[in-house]
Amino acid sequence: MAGQSTFVDNDFCFACGALNPAGLQLVFERDGDVLFTRFRPSQLHQGWRDVLHGGVQATVFDDLMSNCMFRIHGLGVVTAELTTRFRSPVPLDRELEFRAWLSGGKRPLWELSAECRIHGESGGRPLSTARGRFMETPTEGR
Q1: Fewer Cβ atoms within 10 Å of its own Cβ: the N or the C terminal residue of the chain?
Q2: What is the CA radius of gyration of the chain?
Q3: In this structure, is residue 123 part of a structural domain?
Q4: Is residue 28 part of a domain?
């Protein structure tokens, strides 16, 4: 990947950086080939009254899928494309579970899928879903 920048993690990412006091401070866990995070949105994260802002959902999906590639597959990536489908209003003050997995692609472009559900409610359709394409890139510090 000659000529590409190397991206450096300084733990200040808005989504997952532990040092960012204004960020979401997401923590990731692995379940086989799936990476997941749990997040309880508050009024600080709303769009419409009592509904999680779609941009915050997209941020969680983006960071989760990127981290899935790094933490499970050992590859640093940057987002090339992100599509989010908002199926139902996502409530505030409920613990949400976002899950992501590799769904296709080949070097250097990978495809991932993700979904959001209320934690503990596995039945039925997800509240929102995402698909992303991610380009491999050199990274440091993750």
Answers
A1: N
A2: 15
A3: yes
A4: yes
Domain count, the chain: 1
Tokens 């987002």, residue located: 79
Using CA atoms, how far apart are residues 91 and 80, in angstroms rounded to an integer?
29
CATH of the domain at 105: 3.10.129.10
Confidence of residue 121 (pLDDT cuts 50, 70, 90): confident
Tell me the mean pLDDT in the region 52-75. 97
- pLDDT for res 14: 93
Residue at 2 is within a domain: no
Domain with 126 in it: 7-140
